[in-house]
Amino acid sequence: MLEGWPPPIFDPAGPFAGSITTLAWVLLAMAAAVFAVVMAALWIALFGNDRLKARLGGDWVIWAGGIAFPVVVLSLLLFYGLSLTRNLSVAPGADEMRVRVTGEMWWWRVAYLDENGGEVVLDANELHIPVGEPVALELESNDVIHSFWVPRLSGKLDMVPGRRNVMRIQADKPGVYGGQCAEYCGGPHALMGFVVVAHRPRDFAALIQAWQSPPAPAQSAGTARGERLFFSAGCAACHRIEGTRANGLAGPDLTHVGSRRTLGAGILPNNRGTMMGWIGDAQAIKPGNRMPPYHALSGDDLKALAIFLEMQK
């Protein structure tokens, strides 16, 4: 089973998810109370004595139960909910960590930003954050409406083409937290997963610093052949690898693909075997995604490509 999956929805691991969970329990409790009152009224209407039925049919029931009660209760719940979630979507502050996450069909584009909104590090399908610090996510979409949701770290928010929405997440302890697109966005929508990895602050700083350093040439047995195949098979037309001439932007950035926990947007563990299978026939694994199958590649070719990609860290 993939680490962090399935993501539980009532087990918050941070303050923003905690406020959402509290609101959910309050709403569920209120819904249960209203359901109980309605069932009691139904029982009286069906089986009660004449005196109770007469009282239930009075005008006061309509005014009190049909108008006053819902207006008061729904207004109180509205203000209570706004007070719990008021900090989730305000604009990022100057000293906040910012990450732009863009929904694609069917994966996630990730860009770590500097204080001016410039892209510092590019990645895909995996988000790394420091423990104990709020992270402002700038959520966008390049095609259709998606919805970003990591249940243990925050609520969910739509990603709308032409609009930038802001949402905050925070983890209280290190770990791996699963996420999922929560808005139907087309064929493989159910296979559009996501992983958030929370690090201790010093580990997170070291990771970002390493990613900002010029990548070392990837070398191992089979690497050179895999690199030649990567370019001759046309992979560079859709994928980017920092420090090489691969600069395609249509598919996920592969600069750090060797260090990711998953492949195919959170659906497969990342190892040599799954990488070979994904390159050879991604359509058989995730039907409808935009990665074409490469049936012409031999097993040795797929292995060489997988070795080259697993060295990209």
Automatic annotation (TrEMBL):
GO terms for biological process: ATP synthesis coupled electron transport. The chain crosses the membrane at residues 20-48, 60-82. It is found in: Membrane. It catalyses: 4 Fe(II)-[cytochrome c] + O2 + 8 H(+)(in) = 4 Fe(III)-[cytochrome c] + 2 H2O + 4 H(+)(out). It comes from the Bacteria. One of its GO terms (molecular function) is oxidoreductase activity. Residues 94-210 form the Cytochrome oxidase subunit II copper A binding domain. Residues 221-313 form the Cytochrome c domain. Pfam families: COX2, Cytochrom_C. Keywords: Copper, Electron transport, Heme, Iron, Membrane, Metal-binding, Respiratory chain, Transmembrane, Transmembrane helix, Transport. One of its GO terms (cellular component) is membrane. The keyword Heme applies. It is a multi-pass membrane protein. The keyword Protein transport does not apply. InterPro entries: CcO_II, CcO_II-like_C, Copper_CuA, Cupredoxin, CuRO_CcO_Caa3_II, Cyt_c-like_dom, Cyt_c-like_dom_sf, Cyt_c_oxidase_su2. Subunits I and II form the functional core of the enzyme complex. Electrons originating in cytochrome c are transferred via heme a and Cu(A) to the binuclear center formed by heme a3 and Cu(B). Belongs to the cytochrome c oxidase subunit 2 family. PANTHER family: CYTOCHROME C OXIDASE SUBUNIT 2, CYTOCHROME C OXIDASE, SUBUNIT II. This is Cytochrome aa3 subunit 2. It comes from Tardibacter chloracetimidivorans. The lineage of its organism: Bacteria, Pseudomonadati, Pseudomonadota, Alphaproteobacteria, Sphingomonadales.
